[in-house]
């Protein structure tokens, strides 16, 4: 069967003499002229960011790149131990932990804030909107994304810094404002004071940059890819995977 | 069994008030002050790069981020089609194609050049060293990594640009010099003229930055992660996966 | 810090002379005495199945092993093309498509039936329960899992056969009964007649075997692992990946 | 551009009324009539196995399904902890550890034996061939695959049982004979006595079944998929991932 095929894309195409990316000439217009974070933003948003947007965006990627021996970092190291010839497999195994419970908070928080703002219409009083949203979440027994952290129980050090950077760049928009309001009002609803966590503030900042909330997890994954490469480079120089594995295995106890 | 455990790491640790990354205070010293590419370099190399090193490094990441509808981009889109709720799965599926035949060239080329230089000792005549290495490769029926490209049959547009950027930054070192020499001398051994490809020149440039050759594939993967996010964001807005899948499926022919 | 660690498991443990699996002596009691499907059932359910349960279970695995050039099969082949040295990466890439839209139907259907039965209490009239459930699904604009198939628009050939096998083995239980009732009553609610699809009947049959509904996707993945190995073995002997990739790439059209 | 496409496959095709698998009618001829292990064999080998071959093959799959808290099982559990909504991601993460150092032994051993036999031509004295092969391996500083085990230092309990099963089924062929000869002769070359391990004997048995050595890792992965599902089902019922993660994290020590 003869057929006409056409696969349209605005990402990349090439011919014998040129490589195009995002409608630009990759070699002539992008290499050496656009930063890597800037390119990642452009690829997902479909528009080139301003220098201020790049600074906030890269601050988010830096904030999310690593958080020590997370489950994802350990999974990547163990996979590297088992299959050291396949760095891509170890990296992929680590990224596969980028789901709902750890890295997912960034996206969940961005979506929560975006949905709340969409329902609220024009906002004059962020505290009132936040109070309403937190109250509804509590009634529906949903967690408010971005609140609380197992380690940073009082304050997550990333939160005020990212808010300051966004403010410096004139990018302190409605999502961050609402997120801060959540930080002020939630104690009167929940009966205790929780910190605004780093993953959450990153989601708020990314949403203020106009990035699509459905892709926010993607940026957390990109950031974490760099952190995982750091772990894997260290694992190559000074292995821990065997020690972690043996620690678990020698303390195994049969229990049906 | 009571035991003393200790898992040393120079990547990241945290306590209730601080997050450390690479021995720095993440919030106070890194966020907003270090770029994302810069951080990725630092994480793997264990030292902060200079601005010139960052420029070359980010040019490499930009060069490797995408090459259109590669097998990895298609695999990521098809996986997203099947499991759109798991962006991390689609990204991981794409990265798993970062193996020997496509993305692996960057690492293979860096290693080939580094091994050749290590055997050669002090080099005064790069063409002679290259001639020897290409001749041996031919005798042993090994391919010379970084030579040839299925699309860019005459010249890969990325190659001269990256060499120029490295030169501008004073980072045109022995690996790039040897790679250029391979470009000059291989026709007399192989009997035909092949272009120095983009993946290869990226490997040479990364090796000149002093990055460990065993980790070069990792940078290709990091770069590709950004490109794959671009494909997945586009797939979300304007899906192609179903059309690709159906194109294959409707042309299936049973043949034992 | 000295600490007592204990990681309890009923799956496997070993010492210098013995390997235990599920509390059995692997070498003495399992190898050559238990089938592979039987073992997979036992591992997940925590109890050894009867021969009849094994027959139904293996019929499900056979039914779900392959469905031609699915997105998952194509993704696995493309990943193998890019990284042929890493069979595990190609298999993993294929399995990562085992999400909500394709393989997920088995689990979704099992859960839908189990939830409906849990709410209904003791059932005397399956058609009434099915009618109520389909009506509610329609009102809430949810799809009824297990209904309809893009290719098998009239009848999915797997459905009657699996029902027959379950009946032969005395394992035609409430989930299959309810599923059949859905097949009878949905036209009066939805206004058109859809076939009961194979993924759905497999979910119903697995639920009737008493397997936990949260793990049903796992069996679909295990089945598909065998099918993917078939595709990858064929890809090694008679490659298609390059042809698929080029078909897409040569028909790429730039469109912002 | 109108084009003729054709993607030949002997695995699976379907039309509105039929699903074909391996040239058979899936519903009429395979479901309920072929076991799952049997189907996996058929898919990879391209021919239906005999009952004896099935018994040996399933004994191998049972032998390789699990080995307690392996790095792959831990990686799968940690990934499930992070992303419990994506069972496919946790399974894939576990399988990605199926590389050279752990699961790869099965394939490496099968290939070592097959290569040795191919070079030896017709064999009358297996001990002489084994002695020669082990001696060469030692000279070239290569490990002999299938020798030695970190836990089972004297004897791996799986080895004699699999040899017995293969013998019972008349499938004790040249690869197993050569493997046993390696067990007899290696002490005189290596100066110490190592056990023939379970992964190795499985590779020998699979090679004697005529399965392609390049796919042997695939069977180890299929077997392990079942074991990983067992771990994940247990992780769902009685989670360990958080405890493993915290054990590592609370013993992290910063060391540049």
TrEMBL record, chains A, B, C, D:
Gene Ontology MF term list: acyltransferase activity, acyl groups converted into alkyl on transfer
Gene3D superfamilies associated with the record: Citrate Synthase, domain 1 (1.10.580.10)
InterPro entries on file: Citrate_synth-like_lrg_a-sub (IPR016142), Citrate_synthase (IPR002020), Citrate_synthase_sf (IPR036969)
Biological source species: Micromonospora coriariae
Keywords, alphabetical: Transferase
GO biological process, one term: carbohydrate metabolic process
Lineage, uppermost ranks: Bacteria, Bacillati, Actinomycetota, Actinomycetes, Micromonosporales
Protein name: Citrate synthase
SUPFAM superfamilies, per the entry: Citrate synthase
Assigned GO CC terms: cytosol
UniProt similarity note: Belongs to the citrate synthase family.
